[in-house]
Prior knowledge:
The protein is mainly beta.
Amino acid sequence: MSDQAPLSADEMLDIVDEQDRVVGQARRADAYARKLRHRCSFVHVRDGAGRVFVHRRTARKPVFPSHYDMFVGGVVGAGETYDEAALREAEEELGVRGLPAPVPLFRFLYETPEHAWWSAVYEVRCDLPVHRAQRDCSQPASAKPGRAQPGAQRDGGK
């Protein structure tokens, strides 16, 4: 895993504008509470067999608690690059060291009445044994693309 410590509610984040330019800094908890636009990295992980790493977020997560997620990732710390955060978060959440650098795919601005952040999306292949981070993932799984898993439902349960 990377040598950087996981981010907590007191960690500082860069606050950014509509063009993703840094305009200030705030504590993570304040950025969430005040809906300050910040940065996040999300990594789509596959193994050598093409299986996608899917996990269930813990109930303690402030955003999308207990939801299934096909990305690992999280906030970008103040002064940290998207690339650095993507690798740090992927190694933390997968519980691995020596992961190849995630490949950047695209960026977009995500804004809802509750949340606002710039998102950088990546992909990486992980052939290492995964030891999920208990604080981030409560239930890991993997899925072969194009195949529904037992008990899986489409949006709306249809």
